[in-house]
Specification:
Strand content: 5-15%
CATH architecture of the largest domain: 3-Layer(aba) Sandwich
Number of domains: 2
Distance between the termini: 38 Å
Strand order of the largest sheet: 2-1-3-4-5-6
Radius of gyration: 18 Å
Helix content: 40-55%
Structural class: alpha/beta
CATH topology of the largest domain: Rossmann fold
Length: 229
């Protein structure tokens, strides 16, 4: 079971989130709170797997309290709910140790996916923000990008998953990838499905764009042997 603490100053938001989480068999609501103090208390006493909190709370900002929460409960992943999708705000949140970033005005439908993603060690950005980030990666390599700075390649994916990702980006079919990696086709497809769940990507086109964006912005960190696939 994935234990989750929800902190929001809006009672309606807390109840809406709790209702969505209660429909998932692998989720357990550890506690509900109103502010940063409640989030920190949960980290100290309960050490939940996930803490969901507002970006701005009555007593603090998530970027200020996130490092403190992580000191008390290093294994707890943090997801913030925000009304701002500016890249500078997203970068500030990621730098503070936030793993998931969702826009409140888009509703909470993406919460289950984001929770499973960050629980597995990934970083989850809601679709509109992810699209904005991908667009920002199209700038020249001299423009700092989020991926190299936070080492998303090594943190999110295993070596096998990376080889599959780059093979997809290079246009290989499932049969060709399975043959190259010496794995059963069903194993390959299970791995692709798992990676989609981690990232929120939905199809091969999105995977290819994701990988190519990483390659453009972070050439020095892309393992050399991927070019040989």
């Amino acid at each position: 079971m994935i234990s989750i603490t929800v902190t929001s100053s809006q009672e309606q938001d807390r109840q809406s989130i709790a209702a969505i989480l209660s429909t998932q068999k692998d989720f357990c609501i550890a506690s509900l709170g109103e502010d940063g103090y409640d989030a920190l208390r949960a980290a100290k006493t309960q050490q939940p797997d996930i803490i969901i909190m507002d970006f701005c709370m009555d007593d603090t900002c998530c970027t200020d309290i996130a490092p403190i929460i992580r000191r008390y409960s290093p294994a707890t992943a943090l997801i913030v709910l925000c009304t701002n999708n500016e890249l500078s705000t997203v970068e500030k949140a990621l730098r503070a140790g936030i793993s998931g970033y969702l826009l409140k005005q888009k509703g909470f439908d993406q919460l289950p996916s984001s929770i499973r993603c960050v629980y597995l060690g990934g970083i989850y950005l809601c679709r509109s923000i992810r699209s904005k980030v991908l667009h920002s990666w199209s700038w020249p390599a001299s423009k700092p990008g989020l991926v190299p700075r936070y080492g998303i390649i090594g943190k999110m994916f295993s070596l096998t998953e990376l080889r599959i990702f780059f093979s997809i980006a290079l246009g290989y079919t499932d049969d060709e990838i399975a043959h190259k990696l010496n794995m059963h086709i069903k194993t390959l497809r299970n791995c692709i499905a798992r990676v989609k769940e981690k990232t929120g990507l939905r199809n091969r086109t999105q995977i290819a764009l994701f990988v190519l964006s990483i390659a453009m912005m972070d050439r020095g960190n892309v393992p050399r042997h991927f070019a040989e696939l």
